[in-house]
Specification:
about 220 residues
């Protein structure tokens, strides 16, 4: 491997992180970059499963909360727009559909929302909404309902991890095995079939062996 040429490809700023981890060994830094890319790829399935399960469960439960108001989309109600960014995302999704000459349908709008849109429903702003019905999105294996705070703590770092993976950032210094276990636990709560699918298809456990990083 021609390391100077590889550094040009990655960028010197980005490569410097791996070089520091490798204690200045450029060949080892390239190896760590490759490991980071492969692990990021392996995390795609659990991250995808979690985002899809979370958005679909919120969509299902929120729709049923307004089942007697069929002319109103749940995400247009003010109690679901306590954060300005959420209202902005919904408005943008509608504009994009209109510009693309596609039907402005709930399923299309839901699919356009970001992971941050969904995780925002577990902030303290939505405590009352969660208590009144949104808590029904998930249950433990013994049927016990879950509270807002049981999602808030794990979802924040997972959203950050998802964004780092999406932007090809270094993640080898994260406790990835712990975050993977957290994703499986949340999936078990949200959708046991999704958790099973993830376990059957994810290569993370067979691939990941936390590398030794120099400090």
């Amino acid at each position: 491997m021609n390391c100077p040429a590889f550094e040009d490809f990655v960028s010197h700023d980005r490569f410097s992180r791996y070089l520091a981890w490798a204690g200045g060994d450029r060949s080892r830094a390239v190896e760590l970059y490759s490991v980071n890319a492969k692990v990021s790829e392996a995390l795609y399935i659990p991250l995808q499963a979690l985002e899809i399960a979370l958005r679909n469960r919120i969509h299902h439960v929120a729709s049923r909360l307004l089942i007697d108001e069929l002319d109103v989309f749940w995400f247009d109600r003010p109690e679901f727009q306590l954060g300005a960014r959420q209202a902005e995302q919904v408005a943008k999704a509608k504009r994009d559909l209109i510009d693309a000459r596609k039907p402005v349908e709930p399923s299309r709008i839901v699919a356009a929302m970001t992971f941050g849109y969904w995780t925002a429903y577990f902030s303290s702003d939505y405590e009352e909404l969660c208590r009144l019905g949104l808590h029904r999105i998930a249950r433990t294996a013994d049927g016990k309902a879950l509270g807002r705070k049981q999602f808030t703590q794990p979802l924040l770092p997972l959203r950050m991890l998802r964004n780092r993976v999406a932007h090809h950032e270094p993640i080898l210094d994260w406790s990835l095995d712990r975050h993977y276990s957290t994703m499986l636990r949340l999936l078990d709560w949200l959708s046991p079939p999704a958790a099973l699918w993830c376990k059957e298809n994810s290569r993370f456990e067979s691939l990941y062996h936390r590398p030794q990083l120099c400090r």
